[in-house]
Amino acid sequence: NAGVMQNPRHLVRRRGQEARLRCSPVKGHSHVYWYRQLPEEGLKFMVYLQKENIIDESGMPKERFSAEFPKEGPSILRIQQVVRGDSAAYFCASSPWESNTGELFFGEGSRLTVL
Amino acid sequence: DAKTTQPNSMESNEEEPVHLPCNHSTISGTDYIHWYRQLPSQGPEYVIHGLTSNVNNRMASLAIAEDRKSSTLILHRATLRDAAVYYCILRDLIQGAQKLVFGQGTRLTINP
User: Fold this and answer.
1) Which residues from chain A sit within 8 angstroms of residue B36, using beta carbons?
2) For chain B, which terminus, N or C, has the lower number of CB atoms within 10 Å?
3) Which residues of B touch A4 (CB under 8 A)?
4) What residues does B18 pair with on adjacent strands?
5) Which residues lie across from B57 on neighbouring strands?
6) Residue B24 and residue A1: Cα distance in Å, rounded?
7) pLDDT tens across A3-28, in order?
8) Beta-strand (E) ranges in B1-112?
């Protein structure tokens, strides 16, 4: 049973470049969540998606950030024109449509460094 | 999601029990109490959850106060691998799948 897979695990970008982070949920899970963790800080919710739909993007910055979860393929978190403040660990989590426990399964994270 | 309050840090010794407290005085009747932990350089992992009754699983026990305004996560015999940040989170499952809102959590240090 493969868990949540995130790639790349580490990504280095220069200011102004684009970063694309990918998340493959647990097989059969239709809910995906993205979180950001700045150094020495807690996890901040960014966006919650179901297949082809954004359900809650209340934690997403209004500019430069976008997320999708297409019918086929992984969920993508895209950061355009990165700045140094975007340097953080980005975690993806998934859950099934019906979850008796409400458990979210997290990936190992993608660590973005902006030079 | 209702707010929870946890101590910033706790320390314990290996092979001793650890009691991690959480206050949630504004909990609603449909809020479940969830605990997650985050080991260094890893993603969070689910530990346990409960509604009203005390719960046990292979990782830990959850003791819930009778008025549900507080709860305690119990690690019966701490190991060095239990050193992590522990998050107590309230989640209303009646409304279906929702995001988890993480607070600052309790950083648990285990001394050998």
Assistant:
1) 104
2) C
3) 43
4) B75
5) none
6) 35
7) 999 999 999 999 999 999 999 999 98
8) 9-13, 18-23, 31-38, 45-50, 55-56, 61-64, 70-75, 84-92, 106-111
Is A109 within 8 Å of B43 when comparing Cβ atoms?
yes
Determine the length of chain B: 112
Residue written as token pair 């819930």: B64
Tell me if A33 and B100 make a contact (CB, 8 A cut-off): yes
End-to-end CA distance of chain A: 36
Taking only the tens place, the pLDDT of each residue in B70-104 is: 999 999 999 999 999 999 999 876 655 577 889 99
B32, amino acid identity: Y
- Out of B43, B97, B105, name the one closest to residue A91 (CB): B43
- The percent of residues above 70 in pLDDT, for chain A, comes to 94
pLDDT at B98: 73
DSSP count for chain A of H helices, then E strands: 0, 11
DSSP reduced 3-state for B29: coil
Q: Across the A/B interface, how many CB contacts are shorter than 8 Å?
A: 54
Token duo for residue A85 = 């403040």
Looking at the complex, does the CB of residue A45 fall below 8 Å from at least one CB of chain B? yes
Residue the block writes with tokens 């998340």: A23
